[in-house]
Write a structure and sequence with these properties.
363 residues; alpha+beta; Chitobiase, domain 2; Protein Transport Mog1p, Chain A; eight-stranded antiparallel sheet; five-stranded mixed sheet; 30% helix
Length: 363
Amino acid sequence: MRITSWKILLLLSTILLGCFSQEGARSPLPGRVGPQGEVLVVCSDGVWSRAVGDSLLNILNKPYAVLPQMHTETYEPMFDVVHKNRQDFNKFWKPHRNIIDVEIADRVDTQEASVVFYKEKYSKGQVYIVAKGRTELEVAEAIAQRSSEMLSLFHDVEVKRTTYVTGASVDEVIKREIGEAWGFDILVPKGSYAVRVDTAFTWIVRQLTRFRGSDNHDVQEAFFIHCEPYLGEWQFSLDHLLNRRDELTKEFVNGPTKGSYMKVERRMIPSYEEILFKGEFASEIRGLWRMENDFMGGPFYSLTFYDKPHKRLVTVEGYAYAPYFDKRQYMREVEGIVKSVSPFTSLLIDDKASAVDEPVTIE
């Protein structure tokens, strides 16, 4: 059979195009590296030792909100900071999970100091921030002006990353029980057990074992769900939410010794913030709990939102008990699980199959 010249040309073009697209296509980004809660700063030693370095350390080393050690010399910072010179910023460091790249130069694009947020420059899910300007002082001021955004972004992304990991191994049985009782979709990590699941009070416990020194130690992450009929905005107040929490934990959350029960530690005032959660008004509380008539204690995170279809105020909260370990990592995991909650109505509206999203979304 005769093959016409145009068919030969088409065949050759297809072969060449296939070869080009394989060789010329962008390689998939590698996975991010670096431990949870770490931020890498890239700049010269001189820049790091002066105003810019001081500004970044003041921002990133702030105490993590409401942990037991936050007012002592051994407090846990929001982030651990690592500094590298540009000549040491090689292929090993470029995929790091969180990077702040500082450029001091007199160029056309640095005449006005700026701080710009990027995603996934060198690795999947990476947060990459470029701070640049003509002088160190201008860059330090620009960083300070956007410090709140920077902290919020790094924290929110770290929380989402823990949620993504948790979502890979979920206890579907307990998750389904909660869904049937509450009409919610929420992540329940493998290894959890249900103390009770009902609309009066739901309590889920995740027991972990961590090694330190020469011994294994218990770590506990646990979660509550409870609600009340919505009567007015006053129910979102800090006092009301804390008092209600104490009423419920006194009734349902007993400690290991007779007569012990969980309550809010009032000697350290909890933090309170009004936020948008899934597009709706909500409040979040970070505080400390203790066992009355016992010696246990630790931090908790609480989220309260209005469930409009059922005209109720819903609170989902979690706490950590890890007496031999730092708490920051566990509290980010707790916050991620709490924030994974989605009423089924929201899931239908958003057409989502899961409450877990791959990070990172940065505008």
